[in-house]
Specification:
Length: 299
């Protein structure tokens, strides 16, 4: 019988990508670093490829490791879906509030909104809450299909056929590794950006859609590399693969640490609005969704 990779080890590998180092990933998973190191060594033996570069300055992901991280995310998402489904079967009821958010919103804004939402319901019976993550296209599809009560997206404009309201603003940032030639000039024009192959998110992501729209009438060059998470793009850029345009929310820590350098783009506006979306009547009848929307809009 085939031996499958351990889910906890895959979760640790993804945490290394998301938090930038083995030690930080171990802390995020609640694991001691020696145990995390052994777990990564076992995972490498299991998959048969090196996943980490190990050095005195710390461990970073290899190219193969970056690819395995992206596949691992899908495995972990499926595992979480399985767990949620089994939990729902045990309880016999579905959560009365279902929310889905695009990745940038889900990683950097939604946790705080949900925490304040729970605080607002303290002292009373808190409604159940189910949260899913996808790209902007996924969120819009689920909203139109009636699969969720409330969605959060990062696309550049109001979607047709749905109710929407702006809940936050964001700006996209062109970022490069510290040793990239652009890091010396700190500024390029929009035509040079359009002509440059970038490390990008997958088609359908709000970041990519917003960039394409902001660059009009210019046509952006085909991507150098497509990855399905902000963390993977960030790691790839810092490793020197190429430039990327990402949400400031997603890379503010790397900019502050100096592992990524912000490049000003002349002659283009890279600001965007983050929106909540929902189907049905303009005035929502789901009180739990209305409460969460009010918290998001007031943040």
């Amino acid at each position: 019988m085939k031996s499958w990779p351990d889910l906890a080890a895959l979760e640790l590998l993804v945490a290394v990508a998301d938090h930038g180092s083995l030690s930080a990933g171990a802390r995020a998973c609640g694991s001691a670093q020696p145990n995390a190191s052994r777990s990564m060594a076992r995972l490498e033996r299991s998959v048969g490829v090196p996943l980490l570069h190990r050095a005195t300055t710390g461990a970073t992901l290899t190219t193969q490791g970056l690819m395995v991280v992206e596949w691992a995310r899908r495995v972990l998402e499926a595992a979480r879906d399985l767990d949620a489904g089994v939990t729902a079967l045990r309880s016999g009821v579905d959560a009365p509030l279902t929310v889905m958010a695009s990745q940038t919103v889900a990683e950097h804004l939604l946790p705080g909104w949900i925490a304040r939402w729970h605080e607002a319901h303290s002292g009373e019976t808190t409604p159940g809450l189910s949260v899913a993550v996808g790209n902007t296209t996924d969120v819009l599809t689920a909203t139109r299909a009636g699969e969720i009560d409330l969605g959060f997206i990062e696309g550049p404009g109001a979607p047709r056929g749905l109710n929407s309201t702006v809940v936050a603003t964001d700006d996209l940032v062109l970022a490069v590794a510290a040793h990239h030639p652009w890091a010396r000039t700190r500024s390029i024009d929009a035509d040079e950006l359009a002509a440059t192959a970038l490390v990008t998110r997958e088609p359908g992501s709000g970041t990519r859609v917003a960039l394409d729209r902001a660059m009009r009438p210019r046509t952006c060059a085909p991507p150098l590399l497509e990855l399905s998470s902000n963390a993977a793009v960030k790691v790839s850029v810092s490793a020197g693969t190429g430039p990327a345009v990402l949400s400031r929310l997603a890379i503010s820590d790397a900019l502050a640490a100096g592992t990524l350098v912000e490049i000003t783009v002349r002659d283009v506006d890279l600001r965007r609005k983050l929106r909540a979306v929902w189907a049905g009547p303009r005035r929502m009848t789901n009180e739990a969704a209305t409460s969460l929307l009010a918290i998001a809009a007031a943040s």
